[in-house]
Amino acid sequence: MYTKEFEIRWSDIDANRHLANTAYVNFMSHTRMAFLMENGFGQEDLARENIGPVVFYEHIYYFKEVFAGKPIKVTLQLKGLAEDGMYFEFLHNFYDENGQNFASCEMMGAWIDLKERKLTKLPKALHDNLDSLGHTDDFKILTREDTRKFGKHPQHLDPEKIGF
């Protein structure tokens, strides 16, 4: 399990004086990118492979409020990975200074070829590096169908009805 510690800053607090939704997203992103950069996914590495990560969704579950003044820990585990590395799913957990879990997030994404603008598999070395991240107890091999498990599809506007 990969862990990152954060101090809650004034700018991380919302109008209710607790940790803002956007701060959760920022702390998770920072934790993921720190792991990736430490494991061969730095900017130069990604540029050489002409790939980048894309997020499909982040589902955050809030259990308890957390306030400024104490450090927090954000963990990262691998919940799923496609055989070719194209799709990945992460689990983040948030802990207060006493080890109490106050939020959790499941995040799914994929890798995109930045020239073709299409999803792509990971080179084997990067796949192995990503797979070295600690797995959750319910880890699974992901398929394309897993990316559609919530049945969400675009709902386009009719341009004639909205005045485009």
Secondary-structure topology with pairs:
Layout: E1 2-7, H1 21-38, H2 43-49, E2 51-62, E3 71-82, E4 87-95, E5 101-113, E6 118-119, H3 124-131, E7 135-142, H4 159-162
Keywords: Hydrolase
Family: Belongs to the 4-hydroxybenzoyl-CoA thioesterase family.
GO molecular function, one term: fatty acyl-CoA hydrolase activity
Architecture overview:
The N and C termini lie far apart (49 Å). Helix content is 23%, strand content 38%. Strands 1, 2, 3, 4, 5, 6 and 7 form a 7-stranded mixed β-sheet that branches. The chain has helices spanning 21-38, 43-49, 124-131, 159-162, and strands spanning 2-7, 51-62, 71-82, 87-95, 101-113, 118-119, 135-142. A hairpin with a 5-residue loop joins strand 4 and strand 5. It is globular, with a radius of gyration of 18 Å. The longest helix has 18 residues, at 21-38. The chain is α+β, with helices and mostly antiparallel strands and 164 residues long. It is built from 4 helices and 7 strands, in the order βααβββββαβα.
**CATH superfamily heading:** Hotdog Thioesterase
Strand content: 35-45%
Estimate the mean pLDDT confidence.
95
Q: What's the CATH topology label? A: Thiol Ester Dehydrase, Chain A
Largest sheet: 7 strands, mixed
State the separation between the terminal residues, measured CA to CA: 49 Å
GO molecular function, one term: fatty acyl-CoA hydrolase activity
Keywords: Hydrolase
Protein name: Acyl-CoA thioester hydrolase
Pfam families: 4HBT_2 (PF13279)
